[in-house]
Amino acid sequence: MLRQWQRRRLRDPAYAEMYREHPDELVSLDCETTSLNPADAELLSIGAVKLRGNRILASEALYLLVRPEQAPQADNVRIHGLRPIDVSQGLAAQDAVRRLLDFIGGRPLLGYYLEYDLAVLNRYVRPWLGVPLPQRRIEISGRYYDYKLRQNPDAHIDLRLASICQDLDMPAPPRHDALNDAINAAMLYLALKQRGYG
């Protein structure tokens, strides 16, 4: 019912496709931003990759650098490695978000702490389209939590990315970067799916 109401409020009918879920593909998504506060964080980069069945379609990946209004600070640069000079020639945020929405279409979204990325993206999407992103969401940390809870209901469950990778016998993620993080989330999704949590 909420989706129907939102669809009626959609300001640009060209994006009605967001409400038609793709039958066999997902998009793994990650964003790098200027802060960890979604209320004021600006986009620095967006990484996304499609999954079909049990395959990550690396040839159909999207990586966009985004030019923020305020240059990234030194402590922020240490996290993701994106210097002011790196993002100075990036896309305007609205252009990057348009390209991302064209890439996603109606595919469900997955990610590691995806709620944060969507909160930042929706700050750009809502004023433009009148609605937030409507795609179905798959949270990797939640799937992993359910997987571990079933194994041992009384255990402490470590949801740090490095710990999840180690526990699922996945390679350590490479340097923090939006596309690598999106691919890593896709790999974790497939590893959990193989264990019955897909």
Automatic annotation (TrEMBL):
Coiled coil: none annotated. One of its GO terms (biological process) is DNA metabolic process. GO terms for cellular component: cytosol. It comes from the Bacteria. One of its GO terms (molecular function) is nucleic acid binding. The keyword Membrane does not apply. This is 3'-5' exonuclease. SMART domains: EXOIII (SM00479). Keywords: Exonuclease, Hydrolase, Nuclease. Residues 25-198 form the Exonuclease domain. The keyword Hydrolase applies. NCBIfam families: PRK09145.1.
